[in-house]
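Justification of computing resources. Each target in the renewal requires a structure prediction run like the one illustrated here; the chain below, 170 residues long, is used simply to show the kind of job we budget for.
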Amino acid sequence: MSGDTHLTHIDEKGDVRMVDVSQKPDTERVAIAEGFISMHPETLALIVEGKAAKGDVLACARVAGVMAAKQTSTLIPMCHPLNITKAKVECTPVLEGEREDGRVGIHITTTTGVTGKTGIEMEALTAAGVACLTVYDMCKAVDRGMEISEIRLLKKDGGKTGLWLRGESE
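Resulting structure tokens:
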């Protein structure tokens, strides 16, 4: 946990509020997040071979993730609307034997960027979650047991607090 334990979205009376960032300087900010959706090997094969009934699952997940990043402030109540300058979603098939836990599926990595007064972490996390949900939606007819997990921030850079990396700054 970081040294600052003050919750910025709670005022002195305990009410939720959107943080006033009007006095903060614009800085370049980047965030990287990830998510994983596990599935049966047969479901992964359908995706990789392009045989899913609803079409190109990974292309659709990438587009959905970018769209989600752009809509984050409409989904998360105290999140500021941002003029996003970068949104990238990568979908990597994970085959049998590639993970220690033996699960197969799709690993999602998202990168978002902005030049602004507040961070871009929520956009990266939202993109990862929605990309995973899109894979689920497109494949649920053949595999309702898919499981979404490991949605987490990997990196954030910029602003007053600077660089944060998972595993190094915790």
